[in-house]
Amino acid sequence: MTPIEITKENFKSEVTDARGAVLLDFWAEWCGPCRALAPVVEEIAAETEAVKVGKVNVEREMELARRFGVSSIPTLILFKGGEVAERTVGVQPKAAILGMLGL
């Protein structure tokens, strides 16, 4: 699967009401570290059905970024049961992200 674009309009249905875990990548197009992390996030989305993966463009979705206290990007936030379970800031190796996901 490819990552889903998350907006304030679909946040409730895609994240809050999701049955399983959801990993969100808060990013921006101009952000070099975000571009470096993007292929890893896309790989994880393609390789696992256990976790839904979404991307939040902080320039278009400033309200969501503020809501979750995202002040540095890239930020990965793992949601379980619609609540924040874990977060990381900065580029992470794939193994660390999989560990965060419990995979």
Question: What is shown here, in short?
Answer:
The protein is α/β, with parallel strands linked by helices and 103 residues long. The chain has helices spanning 11-16, 32-47, 62-67, 94-101; strands at residues 4-5, 21-27, 51-57, 75-80, 83-89.
Task: Describe the structure in your own words.
Helices cover 35% and strands 28% of the residues. The chain is globular. The protein contains four helices and five strands; from the N terminus they run E-H-E-H-E-H-E-E-H. A five-stranded mixed β-sheet has the order 1-3-2-4-5. The chain is α/β, with parallel strands linked by helices. The mean pLDDT is 97.
- N to C succession of SSEs: EHEHEHEEH
Using only C-alpha atoms, the radius of gyration works out to 12 Å
* Strand arrangement in the largest pleated sheet: 1-3-2-4-5
Shape annotation: globular
SSE inventory with pairings:
Layout: E1 4-5, H1 11-16, E2 21-27, H2 32-47, E3 51-57, H3 62-67, E4 75-80, E5 83-89, H4 94-101
Parallel strand pairs: 1-3, 2-3
Antiparallel strand pairs: 2-4, 4-5
